[in-house]
Write a structure and sequence with these properties.
By secondary structure, the protein is of the alpha/beta class. 32% of the residues lie in helices and 21% in strands.
Length: 180
């Protein structure tokens, strides 16, 4: 990793585990001695409303003062728990941004009443980003645990395995009580 500040956006809709995943990343950063700033934004009282976190991890050991806000075009990693929400945050990304996205699509409100889909967000993500990591983590979670609740931690494991985050798989085991 050759950046001194790692800018991460975690996005999804209410009920997908954005807040839990953001807390796990913060705890892993702190456990590994990294400074981490961030903020989580919720979509109000709206069911399935937008939820996202901006996390900034200082990867050098020298403490610096940083804002929790990621400048547009400067995200290093985009973790999308829902593909439409991942597209919503594409303006924070660049060609170098690495993305990992759950391909389980939550229908847009208007789509719930249409007979055909508006478009395919997964195909749009493939066109926008180089080598995106796209997987139906919701289905994988149901297969492994009988519930979709661990889709976010499966994404965290894959992000670490693909070396998108400066943590190890064993680091996750030490935080098990936070996501079981």
């Amino acid at each position: 990793m050759n950046v001194s500040i790692l800018n991460i956006i975690v996005c999804g809709t209410g009920g997908r585990g954005v807040q839990t995943l953001s807390v796990l990343i913060r705890k892993l950063a702190n456990k590994n001695g990294y400074q981490c700033e961030g903020a989580t934004f919720k979509g109000g009282a709206q069911k399935m409303g937008t939820v996202y976190s901006e996390l900034r991890i200082v990867t050098s050991k020298d403490p610096i003062i940083i804002s929790s806000q990621i400048p547009k075009g400067k995200a290093n990693i985009l973790i999308g728990l829902e593909p439409w929400e991942a597209l919503r945050f594409a303006n924070y990304c660049s060609q170098e941004t690495k993305i990992i996205v759950n391909t389980d699509i939550e229908l847009l409100f208007i789509e719930r009443y249409l007979t055909s889909s508006i478009s395919n967000p997964i195909e749009q993500l493939k066109a926008l980003f180089n080598n995106p990591i796209l997987n139906n983590y919701s289905a994988l979670s149901r297969e492994l645990t009988g519930s979709e609740r661990s889709a976010n931690t499966l994404m965290l494991r894959d992000a670490i395995q693909h070396q998108l985050l400066p943590f190890s798989q064993t680091d996750i085991e030490t935080l098990k009580e936070y996501y079981e």
